[in-house]
Amino acid sequence: MKSPNKYINLLLTIVVSMLIGAVIMLMLGYNPLEAYFQLFKGAFVGKLNLGTTLQKFVPLLLTSMAFVISSRVGIFNVGVEGELYLGALAAAWVGFTFTGLPAPVHIVFCFAFAMLVGAAWASIPGALKAQWGVNEVCVTILMNYVAMFITSYLVNGPFSAKTGVPQTPAVAAGVKLTQFMRPSQAHTGLFIAIAAVIFIYWLMSRSTLGYKFTSAGLNPLHAQYVGIDPKKTMIRAMMLSGAVGGMAGCIEVLGVYGYFLDNFSSGIAFDGMLAALIVKSDIKTVPFMAFFLAVLKSGALGMERYTGVSKAIVDTIIAVFIIFATMEALFTFKKKHKAKKEASAVTGKEDQQGGLNNGF
Amino acid sequence: MDFSSIFDYTLIYATIRAATPILFAALAAVITQQADIINIGTEGIMLTGAFTAVCVSYFTGSWVLALLAAMIAGVVMAMIMATAHIKYKADICAIGTAINIFALAITKFGIKQFLGTSGSFTNPRIIAIPKIHISIFDSNKYLNGLLNNWSLMEIFGIVMVFMITFMLYRTVWGLRLRSVGRFPMAAKTAGINVNRMKYQVMVISGILGGMAGAHLSIGYSQMFTENMTNGRGFMGVAAMFFGSANPMLAWIGCLLFGLTDSIGGRLQAYGWPSQFVLMMPYIITIFVLTVSLWRKSVREAKIKSSLLTEQL
Among residues A84, A322, B96, B258, which is most buried (max CB within 10 A)? Predict the structure, then answer.
């Protein structure tokens, strides 16, 4: 989706959704300027606020990347949440079981196992989609519930710390990531995540694997013609996406909590997916959008505290934002209409790939 | 453990009771799928409907108004989706997901703003959709268990299955709709306004989704909870896939979900790990989805084997 006015569209979308939010606030009798001021103050001013923003940014960044990777092969992966949960539990399990290992080996082991579990979980919808065209949106959504129930069972049963709270025992002190901005919970996982994202960017845009992903996503027939197995590529992309999701869970456990807590995520991965959706899975802008959402999320608390505007209104603004952002042709002006139409005729086809397979 | 107390005659009504919210969602998905729109937003439509129904029922004390309002709310949500998808070329999965998130956010906001609480809202002033009680059946244990105290919507749901089947397969409108779904270009050539057709089914889908939500919040229960649909909309979509967009078969799918749900609830009472029981409907849905598409691919492979063109 390479259109020259992509960034202008994005900016317009942000402005329009902020305006809609402001109108809603005005109608409810709040001062929107004050609310937005408090929102940004709550996100940036002070060590605690900035740290919280950074802490929220890490999982958003990784989960949005996970979504972007799968969308490269045309898979709409809603299942990052499940991958995150299972990855988190896997990391916690390694963290509190193999306590004898030297710390560096132990950390690597935690990450490796979490990513492995995430990849294995994500390969299921990938394989179903590749083999029979089972709608991945449906399968991944349903699998999220299954993953949540599995972790909930394990954390209440076999892996329970037996403290009355559904959580695992704490991981070994050596594997915990350093929190560098006390009193906030910002931790060194931030740098791991950024490094991972740079690596993914390289992988997607410069490596053979990335080329395979893109060509299988854009035109599976052509991919097959040049000797790329589109089905295998699809599954591989899903596995990579799942590994990144698992990594996000691992970082959350090792960096923020130190143990696995039942239902800890409350939709982190969905927010990550939103970040990706807003910028239409453009790999260059996704990190910035993830950061913007982290700002909104962490600033919302301050806004609620100082102005009384409900935190839910921020969610509403984000949702409005996404609705506008998904509309391809919204801010296209009449002059450019013709050119855009041709462009969307090409891209539209690839978008509908999944839909056509399921048409009856 | 006593199996006869799990599998007894009361299971029949329990199944129907559990299946009805999914049934309306499934019908909402069926009707759009016939026009080749996969309605992921059913979940959000349903949630908005549920919230509107509780609100209106609480403030006006009328379940009729509540039901109507829920339907209108559903249509509004569906129209946002339809406009975005049809006019502004939004990817249907993306806009569907966006609608779900929007519904979640706006109901979370609304519960705080209009009902003054957060998380969950229940109040004796919420007037429920009436249940039908026939006093002649009271004397007989089996008749009472099977046929009494059906919610109005549970009966209406079954009526809707037949109505929609009739609409789809026995009317001109249904024929046109199916042609739009099968081959929009041919439908256009035949003089059918494809976009208008798509808007029409989205409106119907909104009405059905709104009803599903209203039934959930003021029929099935008498409360509203944050994210109370809890995947039921998606299960409706899955039931639609199960029945390959045929209302009758989708109904069977819904009953299957209802059955696992009610057996699950009963097993839970015997101290089985509840998580395994609760995940069953989801796993079964994935399984059913897979099997139905696997069968479809086998069938298509058979049809295509006589043709020379190979399609991916």
Answer: A84
